[in-house]
Amino acid sequence: MKSRMLTYIAAIALLMGLFASLQLAAQSQSQSERPRKYYVFNLGTVPLGGIPEPVGINDLGWISGGVNSATNTTVHAVLWVGVPMDLGTLGGPNSNVSWPNHSTRGEVVGIAETAEMNPLGEAWSCSAFFFGPDGYVCNGFAWQDGVMSALPPFPGGIDSYAAGVNNKGQVVGWAESGVHDPTCNHAAPVSQFLQFEAAIWGPDLNQMTQLPPFPGDPDSAATAINDKGQVVGISGLCSNAVGGASAVHALLWENGKPIDLGNVGGHAWNTPFAINNHGQIVGFGNISGDENAAENPAAFIWTPTKKMQEIPPYGTDTNNAAFDINEKGQVVGNSFNVNTGVFRATLWQDNTLYDLNALVIQPTSLYLTLAQGINDAGEITGTATDTSTGETVGFLAVPVFDGSGNPGLATEAKVNANPREVILTDHQRRQLPFFTRMMPGAGTK
């Protein structure tokens, strides 16, 4: 009898333990499916007295991007390390950091003009991230320890462009060769003549490797690289040397071999923006149309197991884009409605797209319009509108933790609430970074 009773008690204890484990697992799963709440901060005044465009944040909390001058005639690359630091140029009037930088080795890459004039009068890719063509030669740069170093083009080329860098010091981008490409748009103001190809500089910056385009395409460009050396980018026609028909194919290069990632329905603007060390890739591409179609994007995520998947826009919005991904698979970007003119910064996690404004601790005068960078701590940077002044500002959003170090999770009611919506003025939209400016309705509402 005693033995039977002990067996019964042991069975009850086992069941209670199993039930408790299931409860904890369910609670953990429920919490993992809910996003954190965020404190949001204005990055404040910036060099040149103009409008900031922060685009990336690394795990040290360094924020990189650009700042327009107060007259909206020039832009300089800027690094926020507590305070904003003007990185200067290569001798010309403009520089910028236009893609997320994640290196924690103190290296930042971007583009800068030299003092030389382009002998062919090319606008080159850089002009889209400045204030239009101005005739100067533009090269990619690597900045470290206060020194900006130019990254050369291929032999015979004039211009180059640096987009990303990993922790091994490998810089990726694209560069011209001396080949005159008949698929280039030779007409002014584009005036592009030379072919360009995806490039890797480094680890020694004098080392340069060409990555081939997808078979049948004449031109290519690399946009990001992870610490495993996997590279993503685009392939297509020379065209305008930026977006559009230059991005017929979204590519992943593994061991130097191009792999077509597919698309979300269209054959232009297929642009991977970031890749993490799990090989997860995010970006955007047209949802319809051929290589000549105007930008009409949807965000995508590509994974080694599920391949290309569209991330639908938020709510009733018409379009969206993804700009960065961290090691946890959190994705930031923006979503917008061409019919209403509403733009919103977004966070995608656990297969759900959130309006980042709905997760922000109130009160704040900041309305987050564009999220462009996220680090592994979940800290997010991008562009916002200060509704108290109407000014465009840079922001940093920091996840909330309670006193025990646990994340402050957004409640179901908070997540499902309808956040405020701000319609950007034509002036405000024209201050957004290039790819967002080019989206349908961005400069017409």
Explained architecture:
There is one protein chain. This protein is mainly beta and 445 residues long. The chain is built from 4 helices and 28 strands. The protein has helices at residues 2-32, 412-416, 426-429, 434-437, and strands spanning 38-42, 49-57, 63-69, 75-81, 83-88, 91-96, 107-117, 136-144, 147-151, 160-165, 171-180, 194-201, 208-211, 219-225, 231-236, 249-254, 257-260, 271-275, 281-286, 297-303, 307-311, 319-325, 331-337, 342-349, 352-355, 366-374, 380-386, 391-399. The strands form 7 sheets. The chain has a 4-stranded antiparallel β-sheet, with no helix packed on it. The longest helix has 31 residues, at 2-32.
Shape descriptor reads globular
The number of distinct β-strands equals 28
How many domains? The number is: 2
Q: What is the residue-averaged pLDDT?
A: 87
Uncertain residue ranges = 1-31
User: Mind describing the biggest β-sheet?
Assistant: 4 strands, antiparallel
Q: Trace the largest sheet across and list its strands.
A: 1-28-27-26
The DSSP helix count reads 4
Distance between the termini: 83 Å
User: Helix proportion of residues, in percent?
Assistant: under 10%
